Task: structure prediction
Amino acid sequence: ISRADADPTPTPRPIPYNGPIESLYLESAGITSQWPVEVRDTYFTGGREVFQDPSAPQYIAWYSRFGQPGFTGHNSILAAHIDYVGFGKGPFGYLTSASAGDALYVTMDNGSTLTYTVLSVSVVKLANLNMDDVVFPNMAANTERITLISCGGTFVPYPGGGGEYDSRVILVAERSTG
Result:
């Protein structure tokens, strides 16, 4: 037996695509390509880091510096409105309709599509929300994660106008890479 026969060379994993997200598709939550994805970032206010809102109610914000779909160990964070004054239901308007086991498809702008499985959908009161756990979760080394975040719970109006939801809807989907 030659040495080559005893130790076959492993097939190298293809290098994942490192470009923008084109669209999301999650049938059970009504998320389709009609909702454009845009890259957003964070900013600091009052000593806290805060995610920028989507630039318009119809956009899904992708915080690309936190994770890139297709890369092992990454947690890609996306956020969108559930509804918006004068607009109606937003991209994540039906996020709580999704269930564990549903397929979430992420299409990249090069046409490749990655399939993730929804693990959980939860509504978390702001007082109990630890964003470090959401953004930087403990994950198996061979796992990728997509986390979708939106407002949820009860809308609490501010005196004089406006307001805020008292909770966040957090959908977690994962993809095993080996």
The mean pLDDT is 91. The helical segments are 3-6, 131-135. The two ends are 30 Å apart (CA to CA). The chain has two helices and twelve strands.
